[in-house]
Amino acid sequence: MKLLPLFLTILWLLNVNSQEIAILKYNGGGDWYANPTALPNLIRFCNQNIDTEIEPKPQTVEVGSTEIFQYPFLHMTGHGNVFFTEDEADNLRTYLLSGGFVHIDDNYGMEPYLRKELNKVFPDKEFVEIGADHAIFTTQYEFPKGLPKIHEHDGKRPQALGIFHENRLVLLFTYESDLGDGWEDPEVHNDSEQVRLKALQMGANIIHYAFKN
Q: What percent of the chain has pLDDT over 90?
């Protein structure tokens, strides 16, 4: 019997009702710390509008740490390289299969590195594009066209890509949308209030979905 995964599952079950979220710190040189005002603003929006009681300051946890099991929701972002060791990939897989949820928001440029590393986490799974009829687009706010476009970057259409386990969405990758930039303080990117509101509402949908599923 593998005692470590059993211990982690028990730790997860003890914390499943927690309303804390954390930023996922990874290796490889990518700026995991990007968008420092984004999550605090999203947390404030959720607490004010969808009846969550999330701790105002998100914590930071490393991919390979057992501390990730204290959080039902992990957020990951950045612009560049991502690297997981085999132990880190195993830890993240155990977390996700035990009921955890990860939202990865491409801040621009991390997609090719991320795909390679997620193959270590789930070598038998691939990204599936999430259609506009999925519950994540209606759980609190309506997005009839699916993932909103917040920043242009390469001008490609926004995509919500997911990894599922036993019909549960365990990992969401938002690509060519850049929700996190829309969550930041207004003066950081000078986005309009309308654009920021769309980003925050979509973020609230993601948070609500992760907490309820």
A: 80
Distance separating alpha carbons of residues 145 and 160, to the nearest angstrom: 11
Q: How far apart are CA 210 and CA 136, in angstroms?
A: 9
Cβ atoms of 23 and 32 closer than 8 Å: yes
Task: Please name the helix (run of DSSP H) or strand (run of DSSP E) that holds residue 87, with its range, or none.
Answer: helix 86-97
> Looking at the predicted structure, is the pLDDT value of residue 125 above 60?
yes
3, burial (CB in 10 Å: exposed 0-12, middle 13-18, buried 19+)? exposed
- 190 bridge partner residues: none
- Rounded CA-CA distance 131/98 in Å is 25
* Matching residue, tokens 């907490």: 211
Q: Which two tokens stand for residue 168?
A: 């549960």
CATH of the domain at 109: 3.40.50.12140
Neighbours of 157 (CB within 10 A): 10
Q: Which domain holds residue 102?
A: 3-212
Q: What 3-state DSSP class applies to 98?
A: coil
Q: In what order do the strands lie in the sheet with 168-175?
A: 59-62, 21-25, 73-78, 101-106, 168-175, 159-165, 128-129
- Mapped onto helix, strand or coil, the DSSP state of residue 173 is strand
Reported pTM: 0.91
Q: Could you tell me whether strands 159-165 and 128-129 are parallel, antiparallel, or unpaired per DSSP bridges?
A: antiparallel
Task: Give the count of domains, the chain.
Answer: 1
